[in-house]
Amino acid sequence: MDIFDVIEATWPAARHIRRGDWKIRDGQGGGKRVSSAELVGEDPDKSTIPDAEAAMAELGQTALFMIRPEQSELDAQLASLGYDIIDPVNIYCAPVQDIATQRPPKVMMFSVWPRLAIQDEIWRKAGIGPERLAVMDRASGPKTTILGRFNDQPAATAFIAAKGDTAMLHALEVLPHQRQQGVGVQLMRHAAFWAQDNGIKMLSVVCVKTNTGANRLYSSLGMTLISSYHYRIKKG
Fold it and tell me: Hey, which residues does 90 pair with through a beta bridge?
């Protein structure tokens, strides 16, 4: 399974528009991952980049390009046009059995769908509003949210969905006063058991490189850094 197909399926744009060799995502305010343009043909010359820019402008979106590791020529072309790198992202993956080693206490982690108002509130405090919650609703494969509790209080939330034999966890948020107590580890273990119970073999996540805490969490669980990507956006 191509991990980028998993990203696309588990955190989907509202729709895709093809403009030549470009795939334009209509994100409807759901963030960069669902609002970027991606080259799906061969590396273009600069004359095709304005086609993607125009398509994004028609949607009322900022010109934003998603760049995979193998697209170095396109990356250089965008840089020469004044596009800066923004939000480099790591992609981690691991077999579910490597993480699903011990179930969290039953009173700590819960699979919940539809999500609860308290989860929406945790996400809202982290800057994840209705437009991003709508992305979760659009995912069509196996999916759920996870509500974490600690010290008899809501502590964390996340969304997980799957395509084929790979699940991807998104939007993991732990409330600030509940951090550094193992909540994130327990939530990831619960996610792995959910995947395993649904016949899914691999668990993956994406994480911006600047989020040192999250990168440390995924590495501590033995997840392997398998790929990366970044965006380019024009200055100003």
Answer: 207, 228
Q: Are the beta carbons of 208 and 86 closer than 8 angstroms?
A: no
| Residue 1 pLDDT class (50, 70, 90 cuts) | confident
CATH 3.40.630.30 fits 92-228, yes or no: yes
Q: Which residues are within 8 A (CB) of 176 and not within 5 positions of it... i.e. 6 or more apart?
A: none
Please report, for the chain, the start and end positions of each structural domain, with discontinuous segments joined by +: 13-88, 92-228
Q: What is the 3-state secondary structure (H, E, C) of the chain?
A: CCHHHHHHHHCCCCEEEEECCEEEEECCCCCHHHCCEEECCCCCCHHHHHHHHHHHHHCCCCCEEEECCCCHHHHHHHHHCCEEEEEEEEEEEEEHHHHCCCCCCCCCEEEECCCCHHHHHHHHHCCCCHHHHHHHHHCCCCEEEEEEEECCEEEEEEEEEEECCEEEEEEEEECHHHCCCCHHHHHHHHHHHHHHHCCCCEEEEEEECCCHHHHHHHHHCCCEEEEEEEEEEECC
Query: CA of 14: how far to CAs of 58, 161, 186, in Å?
Result: 15, 16, 32
Give the residue among 109, 113, 99 at the shortest CA–CA distance from 196: 99
CA angle 175, 181, 182 (to 5 degrees): 100
* 138 to 6, 8, 201: CA distances (angstroms): 14, 11, 23
- Under the banding of pLDDT at 50, 70 and 90, the label for residue 236 is low
